[in-house]
User: Which sequence fits this backbone?
């Protein structure tokens, strides 16, 4: 048996004893070296966004050490230190051959297994399906804190920029500058945006957004963000909008502030409600050529290796988002609570094990 930190039911977390996971032929068993709680864990536990889950081990952001591999695993061995993507798809499906993104290779969101359809990583040990396709080596010299920003924060924020179809020299709004939005700012910059208007209220996040490449900060607490964006763009609006935070109303605001022909890239996880409204006039009665792309981040090995390459070449510097470091698995509840009630000085906590 092993110790794990779990969602006991909607609204309640706690420690449980669980059986140590077993590796299939293509899988690996890992022990955690660094773990990070995510705002998505908060949606899952406290909003019941995925529905009821009983004794589900939480967590999907990990750097770990391989302790065991299945008989068919070729590229990893016990002792290897690895980055584990939050999204670990089944890469052997016909749907992938049909062009469906691997994150949905067995149906919508099925690549998201940890702390959703199987136990997560907040435990003494955790299981990774298809190790050769889903793990990436942790390079020498990369800190555990920095590496812990790659499984979800870096890849998701950058995916926001990919979804928003950013063109060189364009004007981009990033709604929400928590860790996902901060990485979206980096993604927008990498994609060649000229102006990046970053929406948030906390000073610490705003300062890092400016350092990462935002050109202006918009505070949603100072009034309607649509008006603020239209004023800043002389009534034109944005070419692309990335939604990386905020309540469900931000989708309508994003549509209103996007130019005809523009694109919205949504990586926000809407945890409540049945319907997401789209404004009729803002969408030009359905004829505005405004595209809304929403996506779960890509996962898998190649994606993680690309994130590693971005850090190694200095293109992104995600370690700066780690505002709090804890030591020991025991600190997981405290770190999760930090994501639940974000005080002004919190961007992202990491637990070193
Ligand atoms: P945070 O809570 O850290 O950040 C949210 C941001 O949104 C903050 O900057 C906050 O501002 C801002 N915000 C809050 N309310 C409003 C509002 N009314 N209008 C505009 N902005 C607002 O979240 P994370 O960065 O950790 O995560 C962002 C989202 O991404 C979450 O929904 C998360 O679940 C989701 N996610 C999605 C993934 C995917 O694969 N698609 C993967 C991982 C996460 P401030 O705090 O400064 O007031
Ligand atoms: Zn996450």
Assistant:
């Amino acid at each position: 048996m092993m110790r794990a930190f779990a969602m006991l039911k909607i609204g309640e977390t706690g420690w449980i004893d669980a059986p140590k996971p077993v590796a299939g032929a293509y899988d690996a068993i890992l022990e955690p070296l660094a773990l990070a709680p995510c705002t998505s864990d908060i949606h899952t536990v406290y909003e019941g966004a995925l529905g009821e889950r009983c004794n589900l081990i939480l967590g999907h952001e990990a750097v770990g050490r391989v302790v065991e591999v299945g008989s068919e695993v070729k590229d990893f061995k016990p002792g290897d230190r690895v980055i584990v993507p939050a999204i670990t798809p089944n890469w052997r499906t016909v749907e992938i051959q049909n062009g469906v993104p691997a994150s949905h290779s067995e149906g919508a969101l099925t690549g998201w297994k940890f702390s959703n359809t199987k136990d997560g990583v907040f435990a003494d040990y955790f299981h990774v399906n298809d190790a050769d396709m889903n793990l990436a080596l942790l390079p020498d010299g990369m800190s555990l804190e920095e590496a812990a920003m790659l499984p979800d924060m870096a890849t998701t924020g950058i995916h926001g920029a990919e979804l928003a179809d950013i063109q060189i020299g364009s004007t981009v709004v990033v709604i929400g500058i928590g860790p996902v939005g901060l990485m979206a700012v980096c993604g927008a910059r990498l994609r060649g945006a000229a102006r990046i208007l970053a929406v948030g209220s906390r000073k610490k996040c705003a300062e890092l957004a400016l350092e990462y490449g935002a050109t202006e900060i918009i505070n949603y607490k100072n009034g309607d963000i649509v008006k603020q964006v239209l004023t800043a763009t002389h009534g034109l609006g944005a070419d692309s909008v990335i939604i990386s935070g905020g309540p469900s109303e931000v989708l309508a605001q994003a549509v209103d502030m996007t130019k005809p022909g523009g694109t919205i890239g949504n990586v926000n996880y809407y945890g409540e409600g049945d319907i997401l409204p789209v404004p009729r006039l803002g969408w030009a009665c359905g004829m505005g050529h405004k595209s809304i792309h929403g996506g779960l981040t890509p996962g898998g090995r190649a994606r993680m290796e690309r994130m590693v390459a971005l850090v190694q070449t200095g293109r992104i510097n995600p370690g700066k988002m780690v505002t709090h470091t804890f030591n020991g698995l025991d600190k997981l509840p405290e770190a999760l609570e930090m994501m639940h009630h974000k005080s002004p000085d919190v961007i992202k906590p990491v637990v070193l094990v």
